[in-house]
Design brief:
Order of helices and strands: HHHEEHEHEHEEEEEHEHEHEEH
Number of strands: 13
Radius of gyration: 26 Å
Structural class: alpha/beta
Shape: elongated
CATH architecture of the largest domain: 3-Layer(aba) Sandwich
CATH superfamily of the largest domain: Periplasmic binding protein-like II
CATH class of the largest domain: Alpha Beta
Helix content: 25-40%
Oligomer: single chain
Length: 299
């Protein structure tokens, strides 16, 4: 038998491996049950061994079938993605691009969105707020195609694209707080301030960057409330329950508040924003938006 590939056979095997039922597999692929059997026999003939055990009561993969499935899934997904990428490129950038953001959609992001939509009027950009305490979940779950998140990003399954808005960090405190009237403060003074922390869905290294548990000299920083959204953190700050480290653009956005003061902090790494997306879910829309962000914002 010819040892070449037949994508229909592979598609049939993948569906059968999930359904473990010839009738449901046929319904899923819009073919008859006998056609499913034919495609499976043909694939097994190419391989030279049985992939599926079938009795009157059950359908199960053989050990070879299990191993073949494990190897086939990522390769088939990559092939499907390549076809989708080619289709996107042929059609141009169109459809809907969902972009997540944490806290506030700052001016740099909005400039990039405007530039992108002017260049690609057939592609609408939907901006979606994502939880402060779970910066990568919406990207991984497919709720957004890409997201603007606070750095650092050390996720092997995600691509970190353009980095922008690199600025000194700011401490948000209640106007009743002893530090509220300061022009600036040092990172060592955080040892006297309980800090609002993102929820535990965020990776530990990311939580530590947004709410350090020690000063640069090693002094412990008291823990404050754990929050899932920026609004929860600002509310806790206004109530004088804790202080909260913010990037400068977020502080500027909330500067009109009368119950919160924003004090620049020296001695900490600058905050920065970055565009991230799934390595396995990259599309022409995402690549083009990343290019526009890289050109439209100050890195």
């Amino acid at each position: 038998m010819d040892g070449g590939l037949d994508l229909r056979e592979l598609e049939c095997f993948l569906a059968l491996a999930e359904e473990l039922h010839f009738g449901r597999t046929g319904d899923r692929l819009y073919v008859s049950q006998s056609r499913v059997s034919q495609l499976l026999r043909s694939l097994e003939g190419r391989i030279g061994a049985r992939l599926v055990d079938r009795t009157s009561r059950r359908v199960a993969l053989t050990p070879l079938g299990e191993r073949f499935l494990t190897q086939l899934r990522p390769s088939y997904a990559a092939l499907a993605q390549a076809v989708a990428d080619a289709r996107d490129a042929a059609r141009g950038v169109e459809g809907v691009l969902r972009v997540g953001f944490q806290g506030t959609a700052n001016g740099a992001l909005m400039r990039a969105v405007d530039t992108f939509q002017s260049a690609h009027p057939a592609c609408a950009v939907d901006l979606v707020e994502i939880p402060l305490g779970d910066p990568f979940g919406a990207v991984r779950g497919g709720e957004v195609d890409a997201a603007v998140v606070l750095l650092p990003v050390r996720e092997p399954d995600l691509v970190l694209g353009p980095v922008f808005s690199r600025q000194r960090q700011t401490l948000a405190v209640s106007v009743r707080h002893v530090l509220a009237r300061r022009a600036e403060l040092s990172a060592e003074e955080l040892a006297s301030c309980p800090l609002v922390a993102p929820s535990v869905e965020a990776p530990p290294y990311w939580r530590e960057a947004q709410a350090p548990t020690r000063t640069p000299a090693g002094r412990p920083v008291p823990p404050g409330p754990v929050v899932t959204t920026l609004q929860e953190g600002i509310t806790a700050t206004a109530a004088n329950r804790a202080a909260m480290l913010l990037c400068r653009s977020t502080a500027d956005y909330h500067a009109a508040r009368r119950d919160v003061a924003f004090v620049p902090v020296t001695g900490l790494p600058d905050s920065a924003l970055g565009l991230v997306w799934r390595r396995a879910g990259e599309t022409e829309r995402v690549r083009e938006f990343a290019r526009v962000v890289g050109e439209a914002v100050v890195v």
